[in-house]
Give the backbone structure.
Amino acid sequence: MPGMIDVVLPEDQAEGTRSQVLRWLKAVGQPVTKHEPLVEIETDKVTIEVPAPADGVLGEIAAAEGVDVAPGALLGRLLPQAAGEAAMATPAAPAVAPAAKPAAAAKVPASERMSPAVRRLLAEHRLNASDVRGSGESGRITVDDVLAAAPRGQGPGGGAAPAAPAAAARAEGQRRIPHTPMRRRIAAHMVESLLQTAPHVTTVFEADMTAVLAHRTRHRQSFEQRGAPLTLTAYFVAACVDAIGAVPEANARWTDDAILVNERIDIGVGTALEGRGLVVPVIRDVGRLDLAGIAKALGDLVARAREDRLTQADLRGGTFTISNHGVSGSLVAAPIVINQPQSAILGIGKLEKRAVVVEREGREEIVVRPRCYVTLTIDHRVLDGHLANHFMDTLVQRLEGWD
């Protein structure tokens, strides 16, 4: 129909990612207002909402739910407001209720400003927003809030909790869990990095965290009062700045004719999303931040990742990556697959107390110290073993000598 308005997937929100139509929030024939969320798109990294470009009526869905779409792809079309109202008034038009005042124009309670992931969990557990107490900013409901409110032992839909996500299709002796775009893209990226692009080599060191833990105990409360949750990962990010200063090649990438060393340090931190995969939000220009600045930026990114509020901009442009796999109990992971086109990734193992031998005044003693294994997996085209070990030695000295 002439005059229809195209709804397209913005190129800047899905650049370099695989995207799939997750859910249409409106049906054909329903009225929409400008900037009102119209369709959810799931990428390999985040779920985004595409808003209506104008007031009107949804006249056509061009990309059905579950269909892969590329940046700039046509998702649907809107009838302009006047034409849409006329179409709804004709007998042949789908029966829809008269357009009410747009909900977006009303003041929406903070507890109902929910991410797509939160809405899905509420539906799966048959909960209303009023059943859940939001712990996010201004009462926003998070994924953890929904999981905490779900009855124990009850899975999505009200039945017994299954051993796999609700989307799993059951067969005799098996559970089938369909791949999400995020999971498919993670798999493809890892295989490409490990088997087709970079020769991986891993070096393993051990760090004594006594000095870091003492510093954290002294300053944790004051940092939190400044809005900077002082996690151990923040110390590792700060220590990586020193190590990259000693070995700039760790902050570089390989090209066919040269090694390109990044002058700015943008560190991505792997963040697990329960049941959905892994994202790597990036702390920008880390070399210009002190420990408090790093802690604040890291806390903000991790919180928004778990609330499904990251944007594509938050995930782009990292020059070095940290994987704190020890938070889930792992002692050593090697090799950790390099996040292409980067040249190195740091792995942090579980912190635990260990008996070690130290020398004091010429005598050897056995003492108990908090220690963890740290690994550096490198692209051997960019770094060799000597540079990798120099990086790790600098990192460990910074951690063990924290003042």
Remarks:
- Residues 91-108, 159-170 have pLDDT under 50 and may be disordered.
- The first strand starts at residue 5 and ends at 8.
